[in-house]
Amino acid sequence: MQLHTAQSLIAKDLHRFRVLNCGRRFGKTFLAIEEMLGYAIAKGDRRVCYYAPTRDDARDIAWLMLIKKCENIIKYKNESRLEIKIMTIDGGESLISLYGWESVQERGKGRGLANDFLVLDEVASYRNFWEGWNDVLSPTLIDHKGSALFISTPKGFNHFYDLFNMQDKNPDFKSYHFSTYDNPHIPKEEIEREKIGKPEDSFAQEYMADFRKTEGLVYKDFDRVRHIYDDFTKQGQIIKRIAGIDFGFTNPTCVLEIEIDYDNTYWIKSEWYRRGKTNAEIIEYVKTITLDAVYPDPAEPDRILEMSNMGLNVQEVSKDISKGIDSVRQLFKTNKIRIHQSCANLISELETYRYPEKRANSNEQENPVKENDHSLDALRYALFNTAPIVVEDEDSLSLYSWSFK
Predict the structure, then answer these.
(1) How far apart are CA 106 and CA 254, in angstroms?
(2) 3-state secondary structure of 269
(3) Which residue, 137, 195, 228, 286, is most buried by CB atoms nearer than 10 A?
(4) What is the largest CA-CA distance in the chain?
(5) Phi, psi (5° rounding) for residue 346?
């Protein structure tokens, strides 16, 4: 089967980084396999890597298709490692490897290698994408001036939305948008059948590749236009500087630097988002910020005690997740939160943090899915414990008074 018109347009593009936002069944995996093979076969000693959200996904999505496509030129195959070596047109051999994104996210796998071409599939489902891309994978393309193809169906306004818009900032990037209808091999009546059976937003996102808010979002009132600011935005007079801290080591540690003005607006000034940091290193960083108080993860009493002993003004933090979320929600609704545009992880988490899907004959769960939440936990620790106290007036209307502990 040859590439269809839309696939050919993408394949002919010479930009170093191409971003493909496409509907289901567009043919993105077929395109990816064709491009991987093209890069690998053109010259010996090339290294080509394919990433899916998990290793099992990589096996299920691409492995068999890759083996079938390359069966006549395979010199070496290791199914347990999901890698093959193929013969090249210059008489050499090149390596093609398949990985799961979790290997990058959890172990930094791939760091230090030299790659010629990367395919990142289902990018919208990657956790901590920018950290993994900027710190691990992007540097692997430097030696050989390698390139990358990012492909996905959207999943809300998360990091893939930002990646899709990188072409507006960086001339090395080019983005493409195609729906399922752009694949001539998919019967139109099948797409129409799916359209009838799905909610409008779900169909628009999955088949039209339209960026829509994810269903079940915890902070659905967050809006980039209303709540994100840049260096030119005028702030009110600052009356207090605080930080929220979510501890981690294998998972990232997040420190949010927050300024509060006279109008009780919270300005999230910066985020420090790092893996593998000891408590001493965290304290060292926090002490470089001028702060009136810090609000750390209450589940880490030993770390909290060490912070206090090192002279930080540590405040008590509530463990009530549900009430903390409600408090932050109210701040978004009343436009009392502003987030600096550099806080990429916080913004991404706000657009992906969700409740579990409701199962039939079961009550809805109060707490969100425990993922994509490190920055949000830090935000909740700080804001819930400094922000509004709800009181009831004589007419039973909720009023908010503001106090700092």
Answers:
(1) 16
(2) strand
(3) 137
(4) 86
(5) -60, -45
Cβ contacts of 322 within 8 Å, gap of 6 or more: 366, 367
Helix (H, G, I), strand (E, B) or coil at 378: helix
Q: What is the pLDDT of residues 21-56, one digit of tens each?
A: 999 999 999 999 999 999 999 999 999 999 999 999
How many Å from the N-terminal Cα to the C-terminal Cα in the chain?
A: 67
Residue 55, token pair as written in the block: 């290793």
Where on the phi/psi map is residue 396: left (φ > 0), alpha (ψ -120 to 50), or beta? left
Per the model's pLDDT, the better-predicted residue between 35 and 393 turns out to be 35
| 224-356+364-401 CATH fold | Nucleotidyltransferase; domain 5 (3.30.420)
Domain spans, the chain: 5-206, 224-356+364-401
For residue 352, the model assigns a pLDDT of 83
**The pTM is what?**
0.69
CATH code: domain 5-206 is 3.40.50.300
Q: What is the spatial distance between Cα 337 and Cα 255, in angstroms, rounded to a whole number?
A: 17
Within 13 A of 110's CA, how many CA atoms are on the CB side?
30
Q: How far apart are CA 294 and CA 290, in angstroms?
A: 11
**Which residue has 């593998």 as its token pair?**
276
Residue identified by tokens 């599939």 is 121
Q: Which one, of 25, 21, 348, lies nearest residue 175 by Cα?
A: 21
